[in-house]
Amino acid sequence: MSSGYTVNTTSLAIRVGELRALADEVDAAAGRLSGSSGDLGPGEIGAAAREVADQWRAHLGDVRDKIGTIADNVRSAVTNYDQVEQGGADRMRLAVQHSVAEAQLDALRSGAAAQQAGVTRLLDETKGGTP
């Protein structure tokens, strides 16, 4: 098992979208609560419902701001993770290219050494008078 960690950036973005949708639902619920018509029951239930709706709306702006901050942080994190992944891929690609180039050079060196050995042997044979 890997000792590192993985980040599912798509999942993070989905969670931010869900938070925004939840804020929209709270806003809609506050609208329905404050706009309720008819008799909600004895006493001041209607006024209390409107007061709760007003409080929800008052705090909803703060919630939306916090969701916006979370969304910005997630976008930054996604960008950072993507850059780290790209950097790792680039380093791996360079390492592979270097390895392949070294292997090709080794093959060329071996071939050149074998060819030089053959030429040296031929010269030695020629100097020794062997036809």
How would you sum up this structure, described in words?
The protein has 131 residues and is mainly α. The protein has a domain at 9-93. The protein is 83% helix and 0% strand. The protein is built from two helices and no strands. It has helices spanning 9-34, 45-127. α1 runs antiparallel to α2 (45-127).
Topology:
Layout: H1 9-34, H2 45-127
Features:
131 residues, 0% strand, rod-shaped
Radius of gyration over C-alpha positions, nearest whole angstrom? 37 Å
**Count of discrete alpha- or pi-helical segments spanning 4 or more residues:** 2
Portion in strands:
under 5%
Q: Distance between the terminal alpha carbons, to the nearest Å?
A: 67 Å
Main sheet characteristics: none
SSE order: HH
Q: Summary?
A:
This protein has 131 residues and is mainly alpha-helical. It contains 2 helices and no strands. 1% of the residues are buried.
